């Protein structure tokens, strides 16, 4: 149990995971000791910086969500990965951690033996997916070693397949930097990019928006983010009323609290950008060692926030229109008698922003706007469809917030209800066929789809 706990703590920390991969790559390249040390610490510190910035963002999004709920009289379910995971951990802790470890091993084996060369480095999302898989498979009467092996295989397979599905879009976003999407909102981002491809051929990039010289300060991402978020907070504070805002702010003046929250949010975004730059500066060179010596042609799949600096204006546009899509989705669910899914600020910021970036990469402003809006609609409808599945498992009134969790959870749950264990084996068989077929069709050793 001590070893299992140690592995759990290492594998659930993306910072250590990135550091270990970077260290292995640098050792494979026979780099000198001081370069191994700095090249290992760089990604670790960069990810901790990214996490610190994300923590600031999340801490400031929480009161905004409360003010919106109070001011606009909305009650319902707020999708939250952390909440459903904490509930599941009380029942399925050992199974979840075992699936996490086995899933990582399967991911490495798949990357070594197939053309799906993508190594998934976002440990906390692997942890959330392991939790979902342990819950759904457990409810379908899978137990013990079989549950862990099937759950681990599905986790490892999806960790390699999901980055590959939209890698040609990811390369457009990064302008050829060989990193991949390692985040389980990926299907929403690729959908946004596909929509951008359809509607935005001639549309100007969000990053090329012409700004008059007197408004040139808006090109400073931190300042423009601060100004936009201050407006958001002020509207929410006015709608919620001074008494309520004072109750959640420790007695601060509502307007001062709103302005400070908007400014702190912008600081969080700036810290994320700084952390991303630090990660990429050391991780990509170190990954050459992994790809040349250990797993030929390996591609690192990294957190969605790593893509924010590639299109900072699309980040804000994506958040705004994803949130709008979530609101409209909530009203549609209310009109048809469904469960109200209140737009969660965290998924709409991180997933909406990333959908905006991917939509912009293929369809400019039009792609960023419509792609993130459609992503927001799905972030309302998919959690609503997943809720009954999780409710049947005893996790009522809580649901996962991101795209891939909902799709896999609904698919496994419904296939299991329809055909019991046979339905799950069919899904495993399909994943296995997807992994093997590219190697049978081509002798190339390049990572599949890793070209524009």
Features:
single chain; mainly alpha; 14 helices; PTS_sugar-sp_permease; transmembrane helix; cell membrane
Describe this structure in words.
- The chain is an all-alpha fold.
- The protein is built from 14 helices and 3 strands.
- Helix 6 (144-165) packs across helix 14.
- The radius of gyration is 22 Å and the shape is globular.
- The model has no long low-confidence stretch (mean pLDDT 84).
Topology overview:
Elements: H1 2-11, H2 14-28, H3 33-71, H4 81-113, E1 118-120, H5 123-139, H6 144-165, H7 167-174, E2 180-181, H8 186-199, H9 221-240, H10 242-248, H11 254-294, E3 299-302, H12 312-335, H13 345-392, H14 403-441
Parallel strand pairs: 1-3, 2-3
Helix pairs in contact: 1-4, 2-3, 2-11, 3-9, 3-11, 4-5, 4-6, 5-6, 5-14, 6-14, 7-13, 8-13, 9-11, 12-13, 13-14
The rounded Rg comes to 22 Å
Low-confidence stretches: none
Instruction: Please write the string of helix (H) and strand (E) elements.
Output: HHHHEHHHEHHHHEHHH
Binned strand content = under 5%
Strand order of the largest sheet: 1-3-2
Transmembrane segments: 12-29, 41-61, 91-111, 118-140, 146-165, 223-242, 254-276, 367-390, 422-441
GO biological process, one term: phosphoenolpyruvate-dependent sugar phosphotransferase system
Pfam family, one: EIIC-GAT
Protein name: Ascorbate-specific PTS system EIIC component
